[in-house]
Amino acid sequence: MPHSDHASPSPPPSETFADLPPFPATVPTAPLLCISLQKLLARDPGEEERCWKACCELGFFYLDLHDENADGIGGSLLRDAEQLFEVMKEFFGLEVEEKVKYDFKEQGSYFGYKGYGEGVVDRMGTRDKNEFYNISKDDILGLSEKLPCPPVLDPHRPLYTSYIRSAHALCMLVTSLLSTRLALTPRVRDAGGLQALHNLDARSGDQIRFVKAPPQDLDDGKAVALGEHTDFGSVTVLFNRLGGLQVRLPAHMAAVPPGDVDGGVGAESGLCGHGWAYVRPLPRHCIINLGDALVKFSEGTLRSNIHRVVAPPGEQAKVTRYSLVYFCRPGDAVRLRSLVEGGDGEGEGEEGVTAKEWILRRALGRRTEGGWEKSGGTEEVSLRGGVKR
Ligand SMILES: O=C(O)CCC(=O)C(=O)O
Ligand SMILES: [Fe+2]
After folding, report:
1. CA–centroid distance, residue 45 to ligand 2 (Å)
2. Distance 61 CA to ligand 2 centre (A)
3. Closest CA to 312 of 212, 216, 210
4. How many other C-beta atoms are found inside a 10 Å radius of the C-beta of residue 183?
């Protein structure tokens, strides 16, 4: 099936990040659709259709945050993201002995710090090559107990609150569009559709994530910083500035070939087989992707695509990579089961794990020796091409 309107136009030369080496034209890229936030907010039917298509076919798209209203959600998110990049740099610059005080794995929590190499990227138990710091939405909004927080991060709680509110609102814009398109059961629709399962004021696993990966050796052939995975929750909002994020394209979707074939594909070629293609970071955009919960709710109509983070391509591999994520997840008590008509989750029963159980198993499994097999998500549906079951 051709996907001509997936072809991402090459961004104009101004579309690069100042002070960072440019994303090279020598690697294949993923054909993410670019959706306009402004048009979505205006309920533009054509844009809504493209967004729905992106959610079903790849589960990843760019969201152009340009907003004519400077006080609108797009501008607010961009300003907050800018500041959060500085905040995370300050935190990650601390000594490891200080940072590990905020690793709460032993208490059964995935919030707080995860040190370099403290997670696994494959079933062989290969260590990851990045650090995380996870901030709980419930902690910041006062819905749960306040977790211990490093002194360099604590003063920025108003910034986290602002970012959480805007990122969550974006996710609700996407879920409300999906609710109108999916054949949700009358009961689910009457109860408020998908948005009602993601109430900002209900306890959930929503979180901000800061990520840092040091410069990588492209030639080591296994430059995988974050192993292949699908996201656990519903909608992810991602800001990154250096390449390195790769999606594994479904068999029917071709990558955009390198613009500069003469530049020669370098050491990255070993990282581009089996459908893997780089996602080119774009200024003033975020990347939106869907997670496992939406695959379960839609019984496979929506796609939670496999992705990973490898060494940034070309000169970018020499630079430290930071990224900022917001994971929107269903409320803790929500059961992950089909919510569409004729689906297998129409009963009132207790079938289906809760969102809380699902996230805990997946998040902590990737931090345990031998935990890979037990920490899987909806990868099989994704690898089958996202065909409806
Ligand atoms: O750093 C990135 O670009 C992606 C991070 C990611 O996929 C994740 O944290 O789940
Ligand atoms: Fe992810």
Report:
1. 29
2. 13
3. 216
4. 13
Cβ of residue 245 lying under 6 Å from some atom of ligand 1:
yes
CB atoms within 10 A of CB 234: 30
Contact (Cβ atoms closer than 8 angstroms) between residue 304 and residue 231? yes
Tens place of pLDDT for every residue, the chain, 389 residues?
334 454 455 555 457 898 999 999 889 999 999 999 999 999 999 999 999 999 999 999 999 999 888 789 999 999 999 999 999 999 999 999 999 999 998 888 889 999 999 888 888 888 889 999 999 999 999 999 999 999 999 999 999 999 999 999 999 999 999 999 999 999 999 999 999 999 999 999 999 999 999 998 776 656 888 889 999 899 999 999 999 999 999 988 999 988 766 655 566 777 888 899 999 999 999 999 999 999 999 999 999 999 999 999 999 999 999 999 999 999 999 999 999 998 766 554 556 789 998 888 877 666 666 665 666 666 666 665 644 43
* Nearest atom within ligand 1 for CA of residue 323: 1
Domain ranges in the chain? 34-258+266-342+350-383
Helix-helix angle 73-92:157-181, to 10 degrees: 130
With the most atoms of ligand 1 within 8 angstroms of its CB, the residue from 246, 306, 323, 329 to mutate is: 323
The rounded distance, in Å, linking the Cα atoms of 342 and 91 is 49
CB contact at 8 A, 206 and 339: no
- Which pTM does this prediction carry? 0.92
**CATH number at 34-258+266-342+350-383:** 2.60.120.330
d(CA 102, CA 100): 5
Looking only at the bridges linking them, the beta strands covering 60-64 and 33-36 are: parallel
- Using CA atoms, how far residue 181 sits from 184, 223, 307, 316, 373, in Å, is 8, 39, 25, 40, 34
Distance 280 CA to ligand 2 centre (A): 15
Q: Residue with the nearest Cα to atom 7 of ligand 1?
A: 308
211 ligand 1 Cβ < 6 A: yes
Tell how far the Cα of 179 is from the centroid of ligand 1, in angstroms. 26
